[in-house]
Amino acid sequence: MVTVVATLLYLMFSTDSDHSVHREALFGSLFFDQKEKAGGAIGVTMGVANPTALIVMFLVFAVVLTFTQITYRGLKQRREQLIKEMAGN
């Protein structure tokens, strides 16, 4: 979620012109449109164009975090086992 918000903010603040701008990010899943309207006003639209990349990214993050947690717990148990073995000698 933080990645999506940060990317939208980056798209929004990286425009350097007052003319029409269309930008996409995260493999085309997020978009930012800026259009000049009558009277000098600027219309802004942003949102999700294709949620597939966002879902895949979320699943990848979840898998990486899960494996990290499993590895941490395994190493912690191994450390405790080694400490017990050293205390027993």
Structure, explained:
The chain has helices at 2-13, 52-88, and strands at residues 21-25, 30-36, 42-48. It is an alpha+beta fold and 89 residues long. It has a 3-stranded antiparallel β-sheet with strand order 1-2-3, covered by helices on one side. A hairpin with a 4-residue loop joins strand 1 and strand 2 (30-36). The chain starts with a helix and ends with a helix.
- The low-confidence parts are none
Distance between the termini: 50 Å
What is the count of DSSP helices, taking H or I runs of 4+ residues? 2
SSE order, as H and E?
Answer: HEEEH
What value does the average pLDDT take?
Answer: 88
**Strand numbers in spatial order across the main sheet:** 1-2-3
Q: In terms of quaternary structure, what is this?
A: single chain
Main sheet makeup: 3 strands, antiparallel
Report the C-alpha radius of gyration, rounded.
23 Å
Beta-strand segment tally = 3
Relative helix content: 55-70%
Shape: rod-shaped
Structural class: alpha+beta
Classify the beta-strand content into a percent band.
15-25%
Fold topology:
Layout lengths: L1 H12 L7 E5 L4 E7 L5 E7 L3 H37 L1
Give a brief description:
With about 90 residues, the protein is α+β, with helices and mostly antiparallel strands.
Observed structural traits:
rod-shaped; alpha+beta; 3 strands; single chain; three-stranded antiparallel sheet; 89 residues
